[in-house]
Amino acid sequence: MTTSAVDPTQELAAFLRTRRERLDPAELGLPPRRQARRTPGLRREEVAELAGISVDYVVRLEQARGPRPSAEVAGALADALRLAPDERAYLFGLSGQRPPGADRPATDAAPALARLVADLSPLPAVLMNHRYDLLAWNPEASALLCDLDALPPHERNALWLCLLHPRVREFYPDRERVAREAVAHLRAAWAAHPHDRALSDLIARFTAGHDGFARLWARRDVRVGARGTKLIRHPDLGDLTVEFETLRPVQDPDQLLVVHRPADARSRSALDRLRAR
Question: One of this protein's Pfam families, by short name (predicted)?
Fold first, then answer.
């Protein structure tokens, strides 16, 4: 059996019908009808009333004849149909809309991810949002980079460390490449979250305060790399090479988990010494 490419309008129509038909009117507190229901679930009139839209519009959506819902209408339909979070995201995707708050990044680590960062010891690991704000880290990450706990909150940002921290900025022998890739990652995040005012403010602050950032930003390079290798010139350990892997949890897609591993035996020995200290 083969499946054709998804037609968002047709799939939206089918999805709305199936979600409407699975609901029990009594559980929603709707008054009983004298006339027996010929189909299970809610009537279109009831969905329209719950969502605050016209019956005709609901009919056209379920017949794949109407325009795609706005973000406001998609939210109203999701509420009316009592959609679970994953179903709600699916409805917004079919509607070509972004859910409210999609551009607001997490400012605190999800508890399960914070525990995972701790459990990844002895591998250095950090958790970031799409602005590259550091949300959680383990002791090994602090020992490798700098004392992250001692940084003021506005400096707990991976790009700020790379560009402006007096110690970390000297870590990378190939600093130009590292900075170029970091700025390219930030540009991709900026395009994906165009309404994030705090992210725009962060970019403006970097542009005004760092000539190198302004030059790299003007290149308009874009990169969404999830893994790579970095040579680090650590002040206590000397040169070591780490491989990094960036993971995006399905449950919290705005949070990025970055895990560092030694790339060779010499680097493994250096990280062992760092951990022992």
Answer: HTH_31
The CATH-assigned architecture of domain 111-276 is: 2-Layer Sandwich (3.30)
pLDDT at 84 over 60: yes
Show Cβ contacts of residue 5 under 8 Å, excluding neighbours closer than 6 positions.
Answer: none
Say which CATH topology domain 8-94 has: 434 Repressor (Amino-terminal Domain) (1.10.260)
- For 158-194, how does the pLDDT look when each residue is reduced to its tens digit (9 = 90+)? 888 888 887 887 788 888 888 888 888 888 888 877 7
- What value does the mean pLDDT of the chain take? 86
The domains of the chain are located at 8-94, 111-276
> Which pTM value belongs to this model?
0.72
